[in-house]
UniProtKB/TrEMBL annotation:
Keywords, comma-separated and alphabetical: Hydrolase, Pyridine nucleotide biosynthesis, Pyridoxal phosphate
Residues annotated as transmembrane: none
NCBIfam families membership: kynureninase
Function per UniProt: Catalyzes the cleavage of L-kynurenine (L-Kyn) and L-3-hydroxykynurenine (L-3OHKyn) into anthranilic acid (AA) and 3-hydroxyanthranilic acid (3-OHAA), respectively.
Protein name (Swiss-Prot/TrEMBL): Kynureninase
Catalysed reaction, written as an equation: L-kynurenine + H2O = anthranilate + L-alanine + H(+); 3-hydroxy-L-kynurenine + H2O = 3-hydroxyanthranilate + L-alanine + H(+)
Length: 397
């Protein structure tokens, strides 16, 4: 049986805070502080530029890619870390569209994270070849996959409601029609078991600052199915994706394997923090994390609904149809969330009326679930949310 109390003790959680926003930004793993200090003081300081060789900084994108690969069911050498998730989305869509010439549709859904849609739309417009980004309801995706679709691009978990797509079924439908399949794992990597190999996904991308706890601004990752890697032409031809970056040739030749999907210089300090954060998953099965996650989410839903009739569950009722988050609708959801935060219970809000609560078994406990549910019910029952300071919108919601 997994001892989640031991993993919780390895996180530097502020006293008196119940943190239910790991689906937006994971908390600080205690070991990350020492790892960052060591990278700065023991590597960058005395080694200076020789740290690229002596401390093997240049290898971090591939090494971290393989560590994440083990969490998402990807074989070694098929995942690389670097740049931002938006950059990786751009690379993924550009590569997929080029591999399906003559097809003009990139299909996505209204539950996809807007940045993914922005990147795809901007890319397709810049191509000026008649491509179209088609956005449908999440439930209607499968019905719109046909021979006109070059690529299907979906976030596995809806960032607002937690609705979970059936990765294997949709991927099979895309392949049956001849389309490429792109998955964004931002809200699932580190939260539930993923098997990209079993699903036969073509390309997957994700971020590392949510359930992987890599810290604010932690880099994104991209996976390409091994048999496709040598066919993929990186649209962003960065120098570190070059076959021989230190030859400084004036012509671009893509590197071998997944290295061709590298773009810019790796953020070494941030990657060192991520490396330490990934240690928290060593020895813990993703199936155990998923099982505890469902328990916590089910407990939260039951306790909120038994104590508060003015909220509406926005997440799927079936625990196997949602990710590791629970969302409730409330007409004054922003103000209610601010009242919760004032009590030291941190979730977040998504327009127009959704309160989101993320659950991570590595550090969240059943007692915290009860505490948060009771506080939410009390805030709504008493009208505590109805104060001017709770209705003033901040830059980040």
């Amino acid at each position: 049986m997994t001892d989640f109390s031991a993993s919780r003790a390895r996180f530097d959680l502020p006293a008196g805070i119940t943190y239910l926003d790991g689906n937006s930004l994971g908390p600080l793993p205690g070991a990350a502080v020492e790892r960052a200090r060591r990278t700065i003081a023991d590597e960058w300081g005395p080694m200076l530029i020789t740290g690229w060789n002596k401390a093997q900084w240049m290898d971090l994108p591939a090494r971290l890619g393989d560590r994440i690969g083990r969490l998402i069911g990807a074989p070694a050498g098929s995942t690389v870390v670097g740049d931002t998730l938006s950059i990786k989305v751009y690379q993924a869509v550009a590569s997929a569209v080029e591999l399906r010439p003559g097809r003009k549709i990139v299909l996505s859904d209204s539950g996809n994270f807007p940045s993914d849609l922005y990147m795809a739309d901007g890319l397709l417009k810049s191509l000026k070849q008649g491509h179209e980004l088609k956005i449908v309801d999440p439930e209607a995706v499968a019905d719109h996959i046909n021979e006109d679709v070059a690529a299907v691009m979906l976030t596995q978990v809806d960032y607002r409601t937690g609705r979970l797509h059936d990765m294997k079924t949709i991927t099979a439908k895309a392949h049956a029609s001849g389309a490429m399949m792109i998955w964004d794992l931002a809200h699932t990597a580190g939260a539930l078991p993923i098997d990209l190999t079993d699903c036969n996904a073509d390309i997957a991308v994700g971020c590392t600052y949510k359930y992987l706890n890599g810290g604010p601004g932690a880099p994104g990752f991209i996976h390409v199915r091994p048999d496709l890697i040598d066919q993929v032409r990186p649209a962003l031809s960065g120098w570190l994706g070059h076959e021989a970056p230190f030859s400084f040739d004036l012509d671009y030749r893509p590197g071998e394997g997944i290295s061709r999907m590298r773009v810019g210089t790796p953020p070494v300090i941030q990657m060192a923090v991520l490396d330490a954060a990934l240690d928290e998953f060593d020895g813990i099965a993703m199936e155990a994390i998923r099982a505890r996650s469902i328990e916590l989410c089910e407990q939260f839903i039951a306790e909120v609904e038994s104590g508060c009739k003015d909220v509406e569950l926005a997440s799927p009722r079936d625990p196997h149809a949602r990710g590791s988050q629970v969302s409730f609708r409330f007409r004054e959801g922003y103000a209610a969330m601010q009242a919760l935060i004032a009590r030291g219970i941190i979730g977040d809000f998504r327009a127009p009326d959704i309160m989101r609560f993320g659950f991570c078994p590595l550090y969240n406990t059943p007692d915290e679930v009860s505490h948060a549910a009771a506080a939410l019910c009390e805030i709504i029952a008493t009208g505590e949310w109805d104060r001017p300071e709770f209705k003033t919108r901040k830059a980040v919601t």
